[in-house]
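User: Sequence for Pimeloyl-ACP methyl ester carboxylesterase below. Tokens please.
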Amino acid sequence: MHSRQSRAPVSPGALPVVLVHGLAVSHRYLMPLAARLSSSYPVSAVDLPGFGLSGEPGHVLDVAELADWLADWLVTTGRASAALIGNSFGCQVAVDLAVRHPELVRCLVLVGPTMDPWARGAARQALRWLRNLRHEDPVQLPIILRDLRDAGIDRALGTLRIALRDPIERKLPAVSAPTLVTRGAVEPVVPQRWAAQAADLLPRGELAVVPGSPHNANYSATHELAVLVLPFLRRVSAVDSE
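Assistant: Structure tokens for Pimeloyl-ACP methyl ester carboxylesterase:
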């Protein structure tokens, strides 16, 4: 598994932060958020197997397999009990990991968690994504196209089918870690109803809306997202130090 690590000096024992990308993309579109958080926390942005610069796992991995790879990476690299920040499909992987490997997760941030159970169909999701594109920063386009080339169409479509079948709403009540759910104020991919339900299903969930943001707040509204994420991480860290 490929990853990029921050090198900025932070306080000893600071909470490790791990960024998890969405469907058919990679660490590349997470870098603006990684840079914004790196002055306060040790940040890693991973490429899940088969995506970005990570190796080919031999088949299209399902959510549980991706979560297990990420769990092994956390243990191997000494980042256990980390803050996981996922975007889109990355939220599904992070939630699955938090349910089955709770000892590895200190807290979660779910940025635009998919899949909305009221729109669990490829056609409806495609329409929402098309509507969302006009709000995204166009500078992302070459990054996403490069990521799609690296993953390949077959892996991207196979992972989409897996994502659509993954019942994240059934897993959320089993997440014991404190969790911040966010959605972009102008995004159609994660409507307010679904974001609110996701936060309510979490035993320790809270909801925040990223002002003016589309789905990929980690790239298109980095500052606005960080303004919400940093206080949450500080609260979690403060509890750890008590």
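The first helix runs from residue 31 to 37.
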